[in-house]
Amino acid sequence: MPIDPVCKMMVSEDTDLKYDHEGKTYYFCNPSCLDKFKVEPRKFLEPVLEPVLPKDPVALSGKTAKLSIPISGMTCASCASTVEKALNTVPGVTSAAVNFAADKATVEFDPQAVDIEKMRTAVESVGYGIREEVEEESVREMVEARRRLVWIWAITIPAIALMIPEMVSGFMIPGYHYVMVALAALALAFPGYRTYRSAVKSIAHAAANMDVLIFMGTLAAFATGVARLFGLPIASYAGVSAMIMAFHLTGRYIEASAKGRASQAIKKLLELGAKSALVEVGGEEREIPIEELSVGDLMIVKPGQKIPTDGEVIRGESAVDESMATGESIPVKKRPGDSVIGATVNQKGLLKVRATKIGRDTFLAQVVKMVEECQGTKVPIQAFADKVTSYFAPSVIVVAVLTVILWILLPGFFMDVITWARSFIPWVDPTLGTVSLAIFAAVAVLVIACPCALGLATPTALMVGTGMAAQRGILFRSGEAIQTMREVKTIVFDKTGTITKGKPEVTDIVAVSGKTEQDVLSVAGSLELGSEHPLSTAVVEKAKSMNVALGEPKSFETVTGKGVRGEVNGQSVFVGNRELMRQFDIDFSMLEKNLVDMEEEAKTTMVIVSGQGAIGAIGVADTLKDDSIFAIAALERMGLDTVMLTGDNKRTGEAIARKVGVKRVLANVLPDDKTNEIRRLQEEVGMVAMVGDGINDAPALTQANVGIAIGTGTDIAIESSDITLVRGDLSSVVTAIKLSHATFTKIKQNLFWAFFYNLIAIPVAVFGLLHPVIAEIAMALSSINVVTNSLRLRRTRL
């Protein structure tokens, strides 16, 4: 957005921007800035988006904003290509991708440089528009398409009834040619008006789309009827022009319905949200619309009701059905202090929940956003199809013109083909004459060619696949991950919180001569009070459970990947692994055998040092997730190599690996070295996927070819990943991989049939062997086939 010198601008430390300009306030920021700017989400979004799309958010990523814009007027993949090129020429637009199946453009742009209104101008400059009310306009278009369908067939059926006797026996009613031209004119001028208008607009903007091909084909066929009325000795295809338009509009209606089914996932997700909330205000219960809910409101959720928004349980206990978020049908127990997800269902007890997130910040909103963003991206394999599509319609027009020229220049050759085919193709008639047959063939070429199938091949499969994934608690961030996942042969798992539950417990306490277990726990627990690491928490909880007195740590310091150090009761204290002891030249040889014994049982060990020497050791075990063994085995059966990444020593890591079935262990890996290990694996084996959950996994998830974040982990890990598993179990990794393979397979199938159809159909039409009406039916069926093939993805066994 251009800012003139008199604008007032505030830039926060997070590069969030606030502009005051000509009496309006504009915000460009992440949802977290709302509290800082003290504005409600809707009010924050409306001013900046009013010129483009009042009800859609701007999502920021670094310095780039991303906006999803519903496009109107697109009828085929060529239209999408035209809109995409127009948006990409707007100054300040980083990238634009148009999804023909969803009728949306996903635009990434610099909010400080681009004038959003120019996006609208760019779209309109090539003959298309931006929808203001997406749902309402979609419904209106469907109703209008149905109405055109009824009218076109009301006109075309009488034309067919008159054509059949003429084709079979040569019988024609008086004034037959006048009647056929009149009926065809009605069909093309009224039900076919929008197709013709779209074609004329495309031609005016020097572009060619599917409507241009139908326009030229039907107009050429109709012109033969008019020419016949003026006495020219050529066959009349006026009735055929009406039939072509009828089947064209029928195909469009069926295609639109099928596209709607493919995009149902997001609609269903949006419908899951609660419409109102019961809140407690001053001791009284009051029902308010969900839009009026604020962070901090106390919500009352009765059994059987949806939880209105994300929050924290303040009072009450119950079981909550979270299947809409995780795909897991077993209810989850909730008690005070537990977090709950908006739109999940409270099953048993009464819950009082404090709202912690509302609007665009909620889990459900983020899921919808991720699914929409993924559907707005492109799979790399689509690049070739896009290239073909951009040249498709102009090339078909050229082929149609060449067809007429070749028929006139080489009539003998083509007549030989027609004569040969006459015995088994009923509509082939060599007696029509060269000019009539040339027009017949050219019309068939124009209406048989189908860029729509190419344009629908990838996005429809992507829409169905990502929708299925979202319903199972699996969120793909980009379409590229679906293709890349197919090429991955090695999967790396972080240990803690990924393969294990991430809630370790103290299992062994060893004290040296003269010390007790309580002495060891007192020293270790006191120092560990300064850390929030899961191992530290386990030690502190064990000390408290044994009623061991703990002191306050001083000069606390974390030694990354090795342990902690500090002072307790005036004594210098160290708690950590062998590397920490060696770093500070501390003798722990008297504990070596105990450490080895514990490590061979897959336990993480810590040496405890107080004063001048080691006083004991502690063994901590982290329980494997219930499905880890099953998931690892399933991945191995799929031909994937599994690797475990851990900061534990090699002996402990290999013991855990044996339990879970992982074939390879990378041990003693410090958090900062995880990225380097992933890079080394990529150099060794090629494409690598990583599964992790912690904040220190984020760089490694980014480095991996496919990063898979456990949804129960940290937000930064989720933001750094290509795939997020909401449920947090490893079985979801197996499901995600199966689903990505199945989705990519459908994409390949769709592209194959779309290309194969056009490669076979166009040459057949050139030789005059294809009736234009049958060509139009085949064209419509090719698009419908691509969409229905994508819908068959729902039957995949996962």
UniProtKB/TrEMBL annotation:
Annotated GO MF terms: ATP binding; ATP hydrolysis activity; copper ion binding; oxidoreductase activity; P-type divalent copper transporter activity; P-type monovalent copper transporter activity
Native species: candidate division TA06 bacterium
Protein topology in the membrane: Multi-pass membrane protein
A GO-annotated cellular component: plasma membrane
Keywords recorded for this protein, A-Z: ATP-binding, Cell membrane, Ion transport, Membrane, Metal-binding, Nucleotide-binding, Translocase, Transmembrane, Transmembrane helix, Transport
Localization (cell): Cell membrane
Database matches in Gene3D superfamilies: 3.30.70.100, Calcium-transporting ATPase, cytoplasmic domain N, Calcium-transporting ATPase, cytoplasmic transduction domain A, HAD superfamily/HAD-like, Ribonucleotide Reductase, subunit A
Lineage: Bacteria, Bacteria division TA06
Membrane spanning stretches: 149-165, 171-190, 202-223, 229-249, 391-415, 435-458, 751-771
EC numbers for this chain: 7.2.2.8
CDD domains on file: HMA (cd00371), P-type_ATPase_Cu-like (cd02094)
The keyword DNA damage belongs to this UniProt entry's keyword annotation: no
Protein name: P-type Cu(+) transporter
Coiled-coil portions: none
Residue ranges occupied by any HMA domain in the UniProt entry: 65-131
